[in-house]
Design a protein that fits this description.
The chain has 351 residues and is of the alpha/beta class. It folds into two domains: 221 residues, Rossmann fold (3-Layer(aba) Sandwich), CATH 3.40.50; 97 residues, Rossmann fold. It is built from 15 helices and ten strands. Bound molecules: ligand F0G.
C-alpha cells in the first residue's frame, strides 16, 4: 500500500476511529540516516543516526502534530485555528489549515522569525499578527483567545499535537528494529521531547521494546528548564527555541527523570558550528535549533558519556532552507571571476 501520512500509518495509536478523514500532506516517513562521517569527525565510539525532520512537507517536525490537530479541528467543525509560534508551528498550521479550508491566525514575535518561515505562513494564507514581545507573550495571548472564542489552538498545548508528534518515535523503532540507547533533541516549548517519550513508552508497553535515555538541549540564553526558572528575556541565534517559559515544562522534566536522561545547554557558537559540521560531513542542511541536538551530543562525547555499545538518535527538527540568513553569516562567501575559462580554472585550483 502506498504511504498515506502518519494518521493512516499509526491509526491504532491515535485518538481517532476507523473512517476518520485525515487532513494530510503525507507528512512523516522521514529519513533516519546513519551518520558515519559525523561519527568519524566527532571521534564518537557510538553509532549516530540523524532523523531528518526537515524532510516533512513544510520542512519541520510540526507537520506530524499538525495533521492530527487539524484533522480533529475539522471533526469538531472549527472554522479557524490559532497558534503562537517561533516560526515552524505557524508555517505548518497555515499549510494544514489551507488544505482543510480553515482560516489560520498566527501570532509571532516581531523580528525574530526566520525569513522562510514567515514567507511560508503568509503564502499559505494565514492572517499573521506580529507582536512587540516574545513567544511567551504570544502564547499567553493565544491561550486567552482560546478561552474567549471558538478558535481552536493548535500549539502543542493541544494534546492532539503531541499525539501526532509521537509517531517519530515509532518510525525510529521500526527502522532500527529496537530502541536507541539515547535520543537527543532540542528543547523549546518542550512539546517534542514530551511527544517522543510518550511514543517510546507506548511502543514499549505494546511491543516490549526497551527505552532510550532522553537528552534535551536548550540554547544557553534560553534555558529555563536547565536553570529551573523562567527566563524573562530569552535570547539565542536559534530563534526556533527562543522560549523562556515552556508550556510542557513539567512533562519534559518527567520525561527526563523517567528515562534517566538529562537536560543541558549549548552555546550559540556551538550550535552554529554543529550546523556546519552536519552539512559538511553528512550533506544535511538543518536549521540552527535542530543542530542543538548534535552540539549537545558533541559536548557529552567530550565528557566520555557514551560507550561503543550506544546507539544515539539525534532529531534534526527543521530544514536549514528556512533560515538562509543565519547560515550565510557563518560561511565563506563564493569566489568571483570574470566569465573566462582560464580565470575559473585558476580559481578551481586543480593540480
Ligand atoms: N526545533 C525547531 C526547528 C522548532 O521549531 C522547535 C519549536 C523546536 C526545535 C523545539 O520543539 O517546542 O516542542 O520543544 N518550535 C515552536 C514553533 C516553538 O513555534 O515553531 P519544542
Amino acid at each position: 500500500m502506498s504511504y498515506s501520512g502518519v494518521i493512516n500509518k499509526y491509526l491504532e495509536y491515535l485518538p481517532f476511529t476507523e473512517g476518520v478523514r485525515p487532513v494530510t500532506l503525507l507528512e512523516g516517513n522521514t529519513p533516519l540516516i546513519e551518520a558515519d562521517n559525523l561519527r568519524d569527525e566527532l571521534k564518537a565510539p557510538c553509532k549516530i543516526f540523524l532523523k531528518f525532520e526537515g524532510a516533512n512537507p513544510t520542512g519541520s517536525f510540526k507537520d506530524r502534530g499538525m495533521t492530527v490537530a487539524i484533522t480533529e479541528a475539522v471533526h469538531r467543525n472549527a472554522e479557524a485555528v490559532i497558534c503562537a509560534s517561533t516560526g515552524n508551528t505557524s508555517a505548518s498550521a497555515a499549510a494544514y489549515a489551507a488544505k482543510a479550508g480553515l482560516q489560520a491566525f498566527v501570532i509571532l514575535p516581531k523580528g525574530k522569525i526566520a525569513v522562510g518561515k514567515l514567507a511560508q505562513a503568509l503564502i499559505y494564507g494565514a492572517k499573521v499578527i506580529e507582536i512587540d514581545g516574545n513567544f511567551d507573550d504570544a502564547l499567553r495571548i493565544v491561550r486567552e483567545i482560546g478561552e474567549k472564542t471558538n478558535v481552536v489552538i493548535v500549539n502543542s498545548i493541544n494534546p492532539f499535537r503531541i499525539e501526532g508528534q509521537k509517531t517519530a518515535s515509532f518510525e525510529i523503532l521500526e527502522t532500527l528494529g529496537s530502541s536507541p540507547t539515547h535520543h537527543s533533541l532540542p528543547v523549546g516549548n518542550a512539546g517534542n521531547i514530551t511527544a517522543y517519550w510518550k511514543g517510546y513508552k507506548e511502543w514499549a508497553s505494546k511491543k516490549h521494546s526497551s527505552l532510550p535515555k532522553m537528552l534535551g538541549f536548550q540554547a544557553e540564553g534560553s534555558a529555563p528548564i536547565f536553570h529551573g526558572k523562567i527566563i524573562e528575556h530569552p535570547e539565542t541565534v536559534a530563534t526556533a527555541i527562543r522560549i523562556g517559559n515552556p508550556a510542557s515544562w513539567k512533562l519534559a522534566v518527567q520525561a527526563l527523570d523517567e528515562s534517566k536522561g538529562q537536560i543541558n545547554i549549548v552555546t550559540d557558537s556551538e550550535i552554529l558550528e554543529a550546523q556546519r559540521v552536519i552539512a559538511r560531513t553528512e550533506g544535511i542542511f538543518c536549521e540552527p535549533a535542530s543542530a542543538s541536538s548534535v552540539a549537545g551530543l558533541r559536548n557529552l562525547l567530550n565528557k566520555r558519556y557514551f560507550t561503543g555499545k550506544d546507539v544515539v538518535v539525534c532529531t534534526l527538527t527543521g530544514n536549514g532552507l528556512k533560515d538562509p540568513d543565519t547560515a550565510s553569516r557563518g560561511i565563506t562567501p563564493p569566489l568571483t571571476a570574470a566569465p573566462s575559462l582560464s580565470e575559473v580554472l585558476n580559481l578551481m585550483n586543480l593540480n
